[in-house]
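Reference record
================
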Amino acid sequence: MTKEIQPVPGAMTLAEMKEFASFSSATQRYIRRSLDVGLDRSDAVETWSRDTVEEAGIKVQMSLYRRLDAIRRDIPEDCAIDSIEAFMPSLISLAAFDLGQGRIHSFPAFRFLYERLLGPESRPWLPGAFCAAASLPHLHPKTRKGLLQSISEAAATAPGWSNREPSFFPEWVEKVDVSKAAH
């Protein structure tokens, strides 16, 4: 009798933390901010805006992210073409916004964010939405090229996807004044 090996939950969380740590600080900041907006975790404007331009951007993001509930509800249960009509255009539009912000520079960062915003059921649809959004003309040609080159063949042609829920959801961390903390 063979014993089935189960992944250790802590090991998966650690792997997710390592992946997040591999992203640039600007990407990490944008993912945390987006999770605050999309999961309604905190007052994103108060937490994340450093100036009026960033405040305006967050408010636009908040407006667009109101679609997340409908997108989650419309995640197709199968691959039938008629089941994607309500889902993919909305997902691509939202993805185009996020990629257009210039802080998500790769498919792994996009996937990391969207798995948390939409849940594991969205995984089969993320490569297509990413490629469609990354191909749109609102992005500079060099940006489009970099984004499209960031998706691996394995991600683009996966024969199956995990239904495991993400376990690491990065959040805002207050800076600690080291000079005062040492006393």
Remarks:
- Residues 9-175 form one domain.
